Amino acid sequence: SLYRDSLDQLEREVLDEQRLEEVTQRKAYAETHPSLTECLKDSFRCTVPRLKHSVMSSLPVLYWLPKYSVWDYGMPDLISGISVGIMHLPQGMAYALLASLPPVFGLYTSLYPAFIYIFFGTSRHISIGTFTVLSIMVGSVTERLAPDMDFLKTNGTNITTEVDITARDSYRVQVAAATTVLGGLIQVVLGLVKFGFVGTYLSEPLVRAYTTAAAAHAVVAQLKYIFGVSPTRFSGPLSLIVAGTLISSYSNLNSNYTISVVGEIPSGLSSPSVPDVSLFGEVIGDAFALAIVGYAISISLGKTFALKHGYKVDSNQELVALGLSNTVGGFFQCYSVCPSMSRSLIQETTGGKTQMAGVASALVVLVTILKLGPLFQELPKAILAAIVFVNLKGMFKQYSDVVTLWKRSKIDLVVWLVTWVSTLLFNLDLGLAASIIFALLTVIFRTQMPTYSVLGNVPGTELYVDMETHKEAREIPGVTIFRSSATVYFANAELYLEALKEKSGLDISKMIIYKRRQEAKQRRRERRAERRAKRQAKREVMYAGHWADTCMDGDITDNEEQGCTERENGTVFVIPVTPRTPDGPCRWEYLKGGDPDCTSLGWMSELQDGDTTTLGSSSDDTLSRDLERVSLGSLGKWTWDIHSIIIDLSTANFIDTVAIKTVKNIFQDFSEIDVDIYLAGCQASVVEQLERGDFFSESITKRSLFASVHDAVLYCLNHRGATSFPRYEPSVVSIHNLCSGES
């Protein structure tokens, strides 16, 4: 037919897996997968190029600094660095309040980590320092381990209790430093073992919902500073700080109206100190959360700018750089850092070209700490709280994500809402853990419940598409092409099998049970026939002699012309009782039994209750169908409607032992009902996993795997036919054995 001809338009041979490996000369597994010993030897092998590459990748400053052009990059980096440094001042002091620390420690946090990142970081445009979310997370730790109630002291004048602010802040600094150092060490270790991919588990909806909820926490945290104060809107944070400081200083707001101010800012840098390691056990969970969140924000910003400006960011090295910034910073009483979107955008839009912009911004902070620090002592904390509010406006705009995600992806919307609610209801670290677990569960659920489809051919092409979604897709007669949108593994293997049964329309369990019942009936009939054999001995000998003479005359074709038809399994033979005539019917009987000693004859009418068969000269197909109904009849759908099933595994990137067992069971179960199973589109890695899982055997060979669905379809059509039911030819061995037993 024209449809069959369109399918046959393939200008190459049909390639199964065995032939494909011969043509492509597939390499052995050992050639593509070195052993563990070889990997260890290779990792410890030291050569000059490898050593140079290792040093350059571990210390990126050695790569870009020798190439630095002061003429081309000097002025843009200087302008950019000064602009970012000015932003560091208000943000550093304001975000320190979120961390429940004195504002001066926000300035320290804007200084030391920025210097460290210059040497180890690979991004040219991100600005390392304080960030809203991390500040809130640190604040939750410091307030939990150092609450005000633990630092109450008695006022000797009026016998009242008040908080010892100096002792409280000192201990909170120790808690923040210990958390920061531990989080930095976690980041360094993860970077060294190449775990830079962990940040990918924080999806964009999750991060945006998390930061939105964290912004709500930040607002609540600042109410204690801003309550009762109505600040006037100014043009920028720095001018606001200057104006607020001048007003507070000349009006004595702290002494006259008990307005909380920044307080003493010591001139000079603090000396390094070893963090209290005894706190590590209490803050390890918080440190891990800080490490993951900080890295996720850092790598997302870094890759955004790298893609825009055409350079590459090393995710593992970024993890190490951020970890070293936190570890070293923790020794100088800094708290956890990561890039800030607002500062990074300023650094990029003002012309920053390299990490040298970070040097300029750090110098601005350094000058402020050394010379200008005392000027901010009278700055009201309400001004810093107002700055926090202004910087949070971008995060509050993220509530519009709900509308966007509703239109684009309901699952991402659920992730957003669960993250937002869990972060609001629980602490930030518990909210993050719950959000990550839920996001991973959505991935598992989606792989457990993928889309299953039956494919049809696009006429005139080698393309096969879902028949439910494409009107022009045409079903291949006798062939079902089944595909899952996800890989097959232990979590969905059982559902995969059920979907295959449903899509193919074959209820294997009922069909096999039906077959077993029919076989049991045949065995009972056989035993009854054996009991009748004594009474019909003379007649049986006559027919057996007739059959033996026919076989001894030696031509199978002649036997077929006389009407001998055999089941493929060699256990059912049908012989004519009366000769064929061109016009009239002939009577048939069947000969049952694999062992010649227990072979018996029975009438065709016994094959199925109430069903007698009389065949004319061209009734071979009818006879075949009668025989098949005995052993392979299904409920509502005869097996010859589908003779082959092709499983498209092109979407599978791996296959585990449970899936291998499931696919093997599919081969075995469908073979019971004489339906051939073929696999198509398997990737080389999947074939290797099938080999290692002992999938292939004498009954399942690589001849059952095909390079593409089209190859498998052509093989099925050539092997079993496009529209006609497959013919089972007589087995020479079975006929020979039967003749030998009867002679």
UniProtKB/TrEMBL annotation:
InterPro entries: S04_transporter_CS, SLC26A/SulP_dom, SLC26A/SulP_fam, STAS_dom, STAS_dom_sf. It holds the Pfam family STAS. Residues 469-716 form the STAS domain. The keyword Manganese does not apply. It is found in: Membrane. CDD domains: STAS_SulP_like_sulfate_transporter. Keywords: Membrane, Transmembrane, Transmembrane helix. GO terms for molecular function: secondary active sulfate transmembrane transporter activity. It is a multi-pass membrane protein. Gene3D superfamilies: STAS domain (3.30.750.24). Its main location: membrane. GO terms for cellular component: membrane. The chain crosses the membrane at residues 95-120, 175-197, 287-307, 416-445. PANTHER family: SULFATE TRANSPORTER (PTHR11814). This is Solute carrier family 26 member 6, like 1. It comes from Sparus aurata (Gilthead sea bream). The lineage of its organism: Eukaryota, Metazoa, Chordata, Craniata, Vertebrata.
